[in-house]
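Task 17 of the worksheet. Students: predict the tertiary structure of the chain below and write it out as structure tokens. Keep your answer in the requested format; marks are given for formatting as well as content.
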Amino acid sequence: MLELIQIIIIAVVQGIGEFLPISSSGHNAVVDKIFQLSGHPLANSDSEFIKLNVFLHAGTLIAVLIVFRQRIFAMLGRDWRLIPMLLAATVPAVVVGLPIEKLFPWIETNLYIIAGCFILTGILLLTSLRHSGGNKTTSTMTWLDAMFIGCAQAVAVLPGLSRSGTTIVAGLYRKLNREEAAAFSFLLSIPVIAGGTILETKDLLEDSAGEGGVANYLLLIGVAVSCLAGIIALVWLLNWLKNGKLWYFAVWVFLMSPMTYSLTLFPVPEVTITPSGSAAGAAEQAVPNAESALDLPPAKAAEDAETKKEQERVLAEEREKERKLIDEERKLLPVIDNADSLIPLDKDDRIWITPDRKAVVFIGRVAMREGLLELFACRTGTKEHESILSVRVKPYLIHAALLLIEAKQGKAMQTQPVFTPATGDRISITLRWKDTDGGVKEVPAQNWISRAEESESPDAASSVSALHWVFSGSTEYQDDEGRTHYLANESGELIGLSNFPGSVLDVPIQSSNDNTQLMFACFTRHIPPLDTPVTVILKRTDNE
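Model answer:
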């Protein structure tokens, strides 16, 4: 019931604010902030609210189509020249609005900006005292008039700066009479609102069923209410403009500015909202008193609270450990002669090529010293439980670096119709690190690997000297939406020991990724301690 009342309130605000020169987006953000302060937000995030705001615009779009239906039919007939004018005048808003929406979406709900723009709206409305219009109509206006009003609309993408007020005043400045300036302003809203609604509706409907979304039936109610409120506001404003003064609305927005700013002084309580109409959502609604909300015994509630606190503590420790590790890695130089002369390939990832363009260099850490292996190296955060080295460098950068040293990419292994091993230029892997005494150690990667059947013998000699890797280059795949993905980036498979289509480097032999049949294991006594930084050097064998 509460959500229904909230939707009706915000839909009425949208319907009235879209047409009266007071800024619907600014007022919607204020209403949403009040909902948040009450502990009952309509959406879980600013992005969710922005989508809801756009969807409610569909109701006001319908209102414009209904009120101006005769004018629209006329445009399709004798007054057709107005159509290209409207489309051309829409371009500035698209050019300005889309980048702002993509790069600065937070602006839409920033109350500091909205409070300032309310003041600008009031000042703009006051200028109507000097520019009270002329005798032009939409039939006699020029292309320059249309583009001037269109540029004014582009400026009004800022929340709190009224679109209708800005464009109507711009029309008055270009000598349109008040009724015709308003008519062009509201006709100009059709392509803008329609385009925004089309772009956002699909995402909004998908998200409305998830956490923090608004139920579809509430959205439909919101559209209906905003449409009805919009029709009433639009008809009233068009009649009022015949004799009323536009600057009267400046008083309202001047009052709204300090009230909006004052809302920023109050902290928003932390609550989690759940999907509307969900029984589970009603049971899991987060409230300050979890014991009363879930009707738990005091001991159980205290235990759950302590468990949650412990989980948060562990996560915070893990995040801090990860941050320190990353900071430490950024300070590391590769264990290689003339490290300062290496050519860096990425400002964030620690990967280089040598000045002679014959070797790729990056840094990993020892992640595993005992057990069976599927990989020799994986990307950090993926398969450290089955890989000797963990590497933070993005796989596609290693792929690109190999191309820069003129390694030729082959093909990843295939299993159908018959097994085909990985192909590509043969790549040697050399490992360098500093031991506990500061001495530099260097071995081929094969030295850290043994046959699985020999792994139990502490004195076993490695029998994998003939093992080598080829530049298979991983593979790509397309998702359900047709987008292409580089498999190694997601699977983390950098240097394989069992056949994987995602491996950037792979062994050109048939092996297995079945844990009971793995061919290779860690040669433990050759591998330095866990977390030891290791410099990895990749070369084409004909460059050695």
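Marker's comment: DSSP finds 16 helices and 16 strands in the chain. The two ends are 75 Å apart (CA to CA).
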